[in-house]
Amino acid sequence: MILDRVRRGAGRALSPACLIALLLAQSPGAQAAILPLPGNLAEVANRAAAGVVEVFAQRTEVRRSARPGTPPTRTHTRVGSGVAVEESLVLTTASVVEGAERVFVRTSNGLQVEAEPVGIDPVFNVALLRVPEARLPWLRRAERPALLGDRVIAVATSYGMPSTQSVGTVEFVYKEPRTSLLQLTNIVYPGNSGGAVVNPQGQLVGLVLGDLGAPDLGFSPSGEERRPSGMSFMMPMEDVWPVYERLKRDGRVPHGHLGVSTRAETVRSDVDQAEIGLGARVESVRPGGPADRVGLKRGDLIVAFENERVEFPEQLARWVTETPPGTTVELVWVHGEVRRNGRVSLGEAPDTLAGRTPIGAPRPPAAAVPEPAASPGAARR
Amino acid sequence: MICDRARRLFGACWDDELTQAERDWLEGHLASCAGCRTEYDEFSRTLELAGSLPRAEAAPGLVDRVLARTRRSATAPDVVGETRGRWVPAFAAAAAAVLTVAGALLLLPHSPWRTPTDPAAVQVAGVTGGPAVATMVSQPATKPAERTGTSPRIEAGPANDVFDHNADVEFILDPVTLHRGHATVTRAGSRRTGVGGGQAIISF
Lengths: 381, 204
Fold this sequence. Notes:
heterodimer; A: six-stranded antiparallel β-barrel; B: mainly alpha; 8 helices
């Protein structure tokens, strides 16, 4: 009896102390779970940098100027970034390696090996490279996609630096019928295209695409370099991954085809003189193609694709080519003054890579350019 | 403003020194701007005319005579004042001493100034798969990778001269443009697919 009272008394006195001790013991861990310390992010970025490589894409270009004494050709190198997703496979953007004759990869610890393009898809702007001679530490894909407001780290290479690292957040999500593009607050630099965007756990959530603005034309009035706009963009992994798997399996990605030629139809706003896109005006229809089957005629105005408003032909062209062949899509168009709609199964586009010339090589004048003299190359001839 | 920019690129375009992005931009602008197109035609005609003129050779010894006259008329001396030179040995000695001490400290195996910046020193766990750092296939997976300069593969790739301004190197960062007032993103890559902007009629 007395022994029981002593035990109960001791229990009452001990319980608040135990509670305080437990709270004290748990509080640092709980804080770490809510707010990752900046040191953790730096460590994550350093770890991810081991799986990021510098990509060199070289091709021979024919000089267009006939200046005497200069060699007729020169080697042009495009430098971007890449991410190892398997021990010998590297993802990068198609814009870096397209048209290249030789591709090299330099790892963060200085190894440099030749890479073979497995497949390049300019529509999704994704390229897959195989590096047979190296074993790379590869980045794991994130279990869940990056969402609005998520903190992300962009890890890439620029100007020969082993890695540029920038922490930011997902600021805006541009959703399109087939893909989306995430706008980030991270700072990106020339050479970052194809780099990794990782979450605070170090898992791959996307590929660095580029930043907002015109291309670097190198003639800013103050003579400064192109400054980062603070608005960078990434392609989310959930869009890149199916393309990667297709490139790995088949070396190419099939694209949808509608069989129309269109031009822009715009009006100028009275308020701010902005060009407002009305849709895609059909100039011609390929006989027997999907557009012909659904009843599109020359002069019709396509205004919607899969319940999305079409404003410019580039938009519609992108949405169509991003759709797998055989997919049934809904189109809305205006014929005369009558609204029409219909569902049609898309065909397969001819291989986007077949018959393409490297970017540096002289290109045939585009059919759409009004006058041949519009091209600088043509004007010189 | 846009026309000014375009016209500033004419010279580089003629000399074939534009990047692909610049060339695409200029060609796009010329396709839509009759004024700049005329200006470029005149520019190229002028250069072609100038290029077709007979080449005049300078008289023998002209360069030497001009240089000699320039030197005679120059007011500044050709040599650096002696007072500045006196500092060089003392400064160099001090710098060498500081560097020696710092180097010795850094090279000590357990130096507190030594930070694990080497990727091999950072343990990769959970974030990446595969080896901790990139290794050659011929090397055992557990052996850390060789540094630049010791690998036989380094010879095969482009040299480290990407900062050489004579080298034709372009660092890629795709430009993304947003249509005003619309949540539409035009990707740089779309133009290369043959379905992009800058063309009056597109087929798909």
